[in-house]
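Note to self: the last two entries modelled the partners one at a time, which told us nothing about the interface. This time every component goes in together.
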Amino acid sequence: MASLRCFLRSGRNAVSVILRREFHKTSPAALQVTVRDALNQAMDEELERDERVFLLGEEVAQYDGAYKVSRGLWKKYGDKRIIDTPITEMGFAGIAVGAAMAGLRPICEFMTFNFSMQAIDQVINSAAKTYYMSAGLQPVPIVFRGPNGASAGVAAQHSQCFAAWYGHCPGLKVISPWSAEDAKGLLKSAIRDDNPVVVLENELMYGVPFEMSEEAQSKDFTIPIGKAKVERQGSHITLVSHSRMVGHCLDAAAVLAKEGIECEVINLRTIRPMDIDTIEASVMKTNHLITVEGGWPQFGVGAEICARIMEGQAFNYLDAPAIRVTGVDIPMPYAKILEDHSTPQIKDIIFSVKKTLNV
Amino acid sequence: MQKMLTIISNVLRGSASRNGTRVVVSARTYADFTPQATFDIKKCDLHRLEEGPPQQAVLTREEGLQYYRTMQTMRRMELKADQLYKQKIIRGFCHLYDGQEACAVGIEAGINLTDHLITAYRAHGYTLTRGGTVREILAELTGRRGGIAKGKGGSMHMYTKNFYGGNGIVGAQVPLGAGVALACKYQEKNELCVCLYGDGAANQGQIFETYNMASLWKLPCIFICENNKYGMGTSVERAAASTDYYKRGDFIPGLRVDGMDVLCVREATKFAAEHCRSGKGPILMELQTYRYHGHSMSDPGISYRTREEIQEVRSKSDPISMLKDRMLNNNMASVEELKEIDVEVRKEIEDAAQFATTDPEPPLDDLCNHLFYNDPPIEVRGTNPWTKLKSVS
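The predicted structure of the combined assembly is written out below.
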């Protein structure tokens, strides 16, 4: 494993490609990369590319990152570029925003987005709103990143999804990668963006490997913020999701395909600005819509999608009401059986698809 | 002797215009005025410091005239804002700075324009010292397109180069300022950041978080607490278990400074700047000052303090009077000269107010602009789904 990481960090080494052939079935130039390593690569490449970029947060340096996302970066770049902070979110988030105002390009890591609540004033009032309040005098090129949403057994205070909270605010861009390519391409775009970007990662996805195309292995590979991706083509129903739930949708689609139901699965990639055009085009084709998210239902991502579909041209193409599959409207419990039943399972998606299609 | 010279020069000028311009002044020779003088200034209380700023300050005539002009401009500008607010031409929040002029002017005299500064919402004075014009400040207050933030920020959100506002959330500007200081250190430009907050904000947790990190990382940050004795309507004794704000930084060296004396503030700031630039890390200054107005325009400012108290400060410690007396008593300027400056200042303010009340409001097209920097134009939802508004960077 260590050698795999080493190769990945040093770039596209042709030798490693040959050695890895047995992992994948398609193009020989593709590689299996975990989401964690993709994020690590993205940061490594951007730190190398622009010396104004730096990373700060709890345990990012000497601990190699609480979830090892920043592994090796401190050894490579040192104290100036990779900064361990005390456990003072409001303080260090504010410091990061101030540094961005004064010309640097900070990456501010929250160990989880639950802790960002302590610093949310700095994210919204100091970062998101400043360019507008100053009528264009003061940009804030900052990235806030970290794991978001449910994990495993960490209970209520450590399991909240903040997509709706940050997605609500003008002046912010909010992205939510699912695959390794998403993670790398979107994080690189976020770092290169001259505006505040919130990157909602997912802890349970960190260790999941994905095929990474040759194109994605390039140091200049970016994914545009604000564009969704159709992960699977289908004709009977549209499933829109973000982050970990995209995988659940694809799994549900595989099961449903055996029964002759073809789901089109859309990976939002960006929460704000939302790519409603891709969703509308899909709904106009399939006539049915289900949104799937891990967060709570009220005022959530799915609620926004449904509202926009109602207000747009796709409404006339719906053959059934658009519905949302969401986390259960409760604080996250601890016991495994309860936790498992608190977020959408594949069977919940399958059930909802069949209900919507009336089969 | 001076009176005689005036009479002679006036006679000699004959029909010269009496519009109060500098022309009259230049008829006097510089030999008439003391070019500079040394003044005793109050000793600063020290915390974790062996030595403090010098107890004497040298003031040149030019400096004196400049400080006088700036403080007078600031004073008149704030009073004009008061007037415009009462006429309902300025709305919302308006936190006035009159009484505290020595702080803003003294601080700027101790640093360079290439240094950085951030403060809270009582920011009009700093917007001026950091390069804003009275015109753009008043026009921002009246919400016009000629305002320093094109009318989109208002009283609490004014920005200039190396001046990061104007911040509405109490205490939030302190970590921001330390972040600016971090950027200064990172970029190795020998610049520092002055980070201001009030006695009310001084109890905020995020400020202590900032003290910790600034000290750990030796950030070139001058923390300055402008203690005007009241956090809104709450006096310092009722808000703080310890009102020695200059000591509240604990491990950070501190000094308590007479904030009504522009020279005291200047010398303390120079001392603090030297401390930062030499790599010793942050330092904390408490400026003891006073605001004549209430917390904001919606506060008459007399329910929690007495009129007598306000009057006493005005008569005994007014920063502009203090400087004026020093200069006159030491023959560094004449009464007429200072009066001329007053007249010029009044005119500048009047012109600015005229602009601020006649400049048109921002165009509606500007509503959705300035959401993102360096981005292609986007569409923004209006109040209903059929209204799609355009937004450019």
